[in-house]
TrEMBL record:
Residues 36-356 form the Major facilitator superfamily (MFS) profile domain. This is Major facilitator superfamily (MFS) profile domain-containing protein. The lineage of its organism: Eukaryota, Viridiplantae, Streptophyta, Embryophyta, Tracheophyta. PANTHER family: OS12G0514000 PROTEIN, SOLUTE CARRIER FAMILY 2, FACILITATED GLUCOSE TRANSPORTER. Residues 1-27 are annotated as: Disordered. It is a multi-pass membrane protein. One of its GO terms (cellular component) is membrane. Belongs to the major facilitator superfamily. Sugar transporter (TC 2.A.1.1) family.
Amino acid sequence: MEQQHRPDSEAPLLAASKPDGAASSSPPRNRFPFFCAVLASMTSVLMGYNVAVMSGAQIFMAEDLGVSDTQIELLSGAINIYSLVGALLAGWTSDRLGRRLTIVLTNGFFLVGPLIMTLAGGYTALMAGRFISGIGVGYALVIAPIYAAEIAPASSRGLLSSLPEVSAAEFPLRRMMLQSCLIIVFLSFVKIFINTGVMLSYVSNFAFSALPAHLAWRLMFAAGVVPTVFLAAGVLTMPESPRWLAMKGRLDEAKAVLDRTSDTLAEAEQRLREIEEVVDAGSNGAGGSNGGGGTWNEVATKAGVRRVLATVLALQFFQQASGIDSVVLYGPRVLAMAGVTSNTLLLGLNVLFGVA
């Protein structure tokens, strides 16, 4: 009987000692915004797929359509130039349509571009499809990190929880530097999804390599079309960015989204106040009448901000200057020049390199 009553007598002691510190210091994590951020970042998987699928498809394109090496090089490398168009338009589009619909539009580019290339009968149609895909690449690079940063609570954003509670209207140096670091963190997060897309394109190249040339490269592009439909449908189930809703004066909707994506109701209230401060500062102060002149003035006059900007630009420059795109786009051709003659073996080795 004593053994039966002992757990009952110990249970209140354990229950009393457990929740006090835990509940007050660390409330349960809200996993819903993490799910939304991951779903939005899946667009980056499509981006990586559409960029790298050319590495294997070009072998069969040359055999089927008779395109030259110069044409293949232009078709492969031009996507980096085309993506600039999407990157320049993404901010303007997301401010007008909203972050969520901009992600859907990005998936639309990844649907139409590869579909045109799948059905292409000549080089002009291939380049048109590549152009549309390139615009989608630029959109994906911009909108995925923006949505993830704006939807996530402080507990998920890491550095953002350490931002000082000061007015954004003054453009304080410390706040801008921490926000720049936060952008780097989210870009690194998105990079994981991009690399996943690159790896999936290598697998697709290998999977269809045994088919006849006129089918192989078309199916490689077609494989990236179907997921865009399901992803766009999934994105429509996500909430809109609370910051964008506040920018449009829809504060009640913004508050409802923050209640769903914050760890506590108190945090939701605090996030709403911070968003309202930033929006008011943008419309009435530095970001409104002079088109963001306060931000550029901060860059021009603050040495610390210039160092952060220089660091970010240097990292991106050396990443591209390392020649990583040549490995992503021309790995199989390099292996062919090294003496590998079987297309299946070429693309199988490319998968191994992608894993490594």
